[in-house]
Amino acid sequence: xxxxxxxxxxxxxxxxxxxxxxxxxxxxxxxxxxxxxxxxxxxxxxxxxxxxxxxxxxxxxxxxxxxxxxxxxxxxxxxxxxxxxxxxxxxxxxxxxxxxxxxxxxxxxxxxxxxxxxxxxxxx
Amino acid sequence: xxxxxxxxxxxxxxxxxxxxxxxxxxxxxxxxxxxxxxxxxxxxxxxxxxxxxxxxxxxxxxxxxxxxxxxxxxxxxxxxxxxxxxxxxxxxxxxxxxxxxxxxxxxxxxxxxxxxxxxxxxxx
DNA sequence: TCATGAACATAGTGTTCATTA
DNA sequence: TAATGAACACTATGTTCATGA
Lengths: 124, 124
Fold this sequence. Notes:
Number of domains of chain A: 1
Shape of chain A: globular
Oligomer: homodimer
Largest sheet of chain A: 2 strands, antiparallel
Strand order of the largest sheet of chain A: 1-2
CATH superfamily of chain A: Winged helix-like DNA-binding domain superfamily/Winged helix DNA-binding domain
Number of helices of chain A: 4
Largest interface: A-B, 38 and 37 residues
Order of helices and strands of chain A: HHHEEH
GO molecular function (chains A, B): DNA binding
Protein name (chains A, B): Replication termination protein
């Protein structure tokens, strides 16, 4: 088991790490993308919001998902005649993936609710 | 001037520090509360969301606002016959306060929009 | 004793460097 | 050379300790 760690007594908004994991799981379920491609997808999606995660964020999230047994990596060649290797990911444990997604969606909703409350309080 | 610091290339959600400053400015404008009271106000407000900032968060935010000339502190006795001293805050620079509020509201809105987008993408 | 504030430790994250084929 | 991964540094934040009247 992973979660011996004590939960923080306070919780503000969803952490970027979890946010990224949610998108990674979605991309991994949908199709065959490697790390940098998933990074580009997220950047494109949030370009207008100015959110531009860096590659270390994506790799750290992928590694945590691999280490916790949620996904697995498979080495491929970028093209047939290419020397460049890439890593394609697959869901390894659907149950664990579902738990992460459920928890993540919950935190997304809680965060949205918290921000809405603040906007009601603070907006002119 | 304060903001020589380079803006981060990436921006995810609003930082807790700024979030707290917005509420502090509101409380300071509205009435005469000291630090711990403002902390309790925020905790009460977000009790149902499970957001429970600690006292260091509030003091750090207050000190930054004082150091940047936005507010000023005034020493008081808790009660007439009390030895306990408290600090009551006042707006010192309305202009600076307005800038912080404006920027904060903007980040609140941006954050809310980002979360909404993610929920649309990720929710079942 | 309680409000304030400082010290300390750690987590999260952005930037830079390294590796591999 | 591009994709991956590691190292490093710094910021944000939570916890604990200290102070003053």
